[in-house]
Amino acid sequence: MYGMLAGLPAPAQDAPGGAAMTGSDDPEPPRFKRPAIDTDEGGLWAMMDREETRLRRSPFLVRDFALTRYLQQITCTLVADHCPDVRVHLVRTPLFNANMAPNGMMQIWTGLLLRVENEAQLVAVLGHEIGHYLERHSLERLRDAKNRAAFAQFLGLFGAVGALGQLGMLAGAFSFSREQETRADRLGMRLMRRAGYDGRQAAIVWDNLLAELRVTGGDDVGKRSPMLATHPPVESRRDELLALAGDATGRTGTQAFRDMVAPHRLAWLMDEIRRGQFEESLALLNRLAGNNPPDAELLFARGEVYRLRNDTDDARKSVEDLRQAIDLGRPPALAYRSLGLLHKQMGESAQARDAFEKYLAELPDAADSGLIRHYVTELTP
């Protein structure tokens, strides 16, 4: 993985950076050596090596070389000398999460890339996970006698179920301690600012995630997120992150990030909708729509959530969003299908037929094309 970085440009730069680092002044550790297999650490490394091999074969692994290379380079910018030991894997899972195993395996979930809005926000999350890695916090928890039973439970769960969904629980049969969280925050911010990113974006990530999860989880947001299940949500976290960031600015990398995720975003939006957590999805989509120029994909996605939720007045809201998406030009073809279904439901045959015909013109070989053609015939006077 390291070799594919040769000749790549530096991560996007759209604002001055390079402010003095904030956080722990402890020197970063040298590259880790592979531990002996007969040690607890060596056994954990071996297990993670096996699961990484399985992950590479998983149908959920996103096999986009350019996007993976982009994520690997951002990570290498943060880990510096540890870059040869770190391998980034992007996994198609619609939840907010990233994690890093002691053997250098980093997993980033597509739900995280859908939710952050620029490189700096992504770096805030990755830097925190790298902080846990450099501080060897997972091993500390393993060696803590109070948590051995929990870790044994984790090992059994991991072995029984396999990689997907369980790699995110590397430290997740037990939460990181508050002290470990603080150290990871400090080191993550130090790495973030050393790389020239705007450290203030870290608090924004935290605020956005909590706002989304509190829609359905109230104050008990840990049950709604794999990330927060292993990283205790403390109310003071936002203020602490802002204090660590200070008042220095840095780059955000907004356009570079948007360009890299754009080819995948519609698929990830559909994954989010299929979760069926409509209130959380609306909180996410309202935020993204509010922070971006008018966007046909986001309007379609929000309209689709309204259509599927089907509460009072949702049909009207859905039609409004879908029509706006279409009026912007080049909407997702599914916008015509959804609009047709809504008009059909409301007994508006002409409008439904017109929308269905446009859908078929865009996707004549769609899996449901036979059903939609039947609707067109049925709606023709």
Order of helices and strands: HHEEEHHHHHHHHHHHHHHH
Structural class: mainly alpha
Average pLDDT taken over every residue: 84
- What profile does the largest beta sheet have? 3 strands, mixed
Q: What's the arrangement of strands in the largest beta sheet?
A: 1-3-2
Work out the count of structural domains: 2
How far the N terminus sits from the C terminus, by CA atoms, comes to 61 Å
The Cα radius of gyration reads 23 Å
Structure report:
By secondary structure, this protein is mainly α. It has 17 helices and three strands. α8 runs antiparallel to α12.
Quick structural summary:
The chain contains 17 helices and three strands. By secondary structure, it is mainly alpha-helical. Strand 2 (98-100) and strand 3 form a beta hairpin.
What features would you highlight for this structure?
disordered N terminus; single chain; Serine Threonine Protein Phosphatase 5, Tetratricopeptide repeat; elongated; mainly alpha; 381 residues; 2 domains
Secondary structure layout plus pairing:
Blueprint: H1 40-57, H2 65-79, E1 87-91, E2 98-100, E3 105-109, H3 110-115, H4 119-135, H5 137-143, H6 148-161, H7 178-194, H8 201-217, H9 226-230, H10 237-245, H11 254-274, H12 278-290, H13 296-309, H14 314-328, H15 334-345, H16 349-362, H17 369-379
Parallel strand pairs: 1-3
Antiparallel strand pairs: 2-3
Helix pairs in contact: 2-4, 4-7, 4-8, 8-10, 8-12, 11-13, 12-13, 13-14, 13-15, 14-15, 15-16, 16-17
